[in-house]
Amino acid sequence: MIVLVARNEAGLIIGTIGAAVRGPEGHIRGMAVAQASQGTTVADGLLERIEAELKAAGCSVATLDTTAPLTRAIRFYERNGYVRSGAVSDFFGMPLYEYRKRLEGPARPVL
């Protein structure tokens, strides 16, 4: 499991993201950004860093799951190249949709 944390200038946690490596695929397990930091570059930075970590771990694809009510998150992931795979599972009676993205190019060094 890989977990990344974003902090603001005061050192407060303003965002997190986690992912697991599953062979050639990395699965993003969850991302959260503090409400005051939503709409900034925090989410972009977290997603970029976790994708770099997954690529460095040998993953060629990243997946994630989300639900229909999370429309803002879905738009964010789609803007960042994630596409609905067609796989749907059950999340406590709610459809859980899988999204996938091919991680292109060489892995960037992780700082």
Supply database-style keywords.
2 helices, Aminopeptidase, 111 residues, 22% helix, alpha+beta, 6-stranded mixed sheet
Write the layout of secondary structure elements.
Elements lengths: L1 E6 L5 E10 L2 E9 L8 H15 L4 E7 L3 H9 L3 E9 L2 E9 L9
Parallel strand pairs: 3-4
Antiparallel strand pairs: 1-2, 2-3, 4-6, 5-6
Structure, explained:
With 111 residues, the chain is of the alpha+beta class. It has one domain (2-102): Aminopeptidase, CATH 3.40.630. It has helices at residues 42-56, 71-79; strands at 2-7, 13-22, 25-33, 61-67, 83-91, 94-102. The longest helix has 15 residues, at 42-56. The protein is globular, with a radius of gyration of 14 Å.
Provide the gyration radius in Å: 14 Å
Order of strands across the widest beta sheet?
A: 1-2-3-4-6-5
General shape: globular
Count of discrete alpha- or pi-helical segments spanning 4 or more residues:
2
Helix content: 10-25%
What integer is the average pLDDT? 93
CATH domain fold name = Aminopeptidase
Please indicate the percent range of residues in DSSP E strands (runs of 2 or more): over 45%
- The count of domains is 1
Summed up:
By secondary structure, the chain is an alpha+beta fold. Helix content is 22%, strand content 45%. The chain has a single domain, classed as Aminopeptidase (3-Layer(aba) Sandwich), CATH 3.40.630.30.
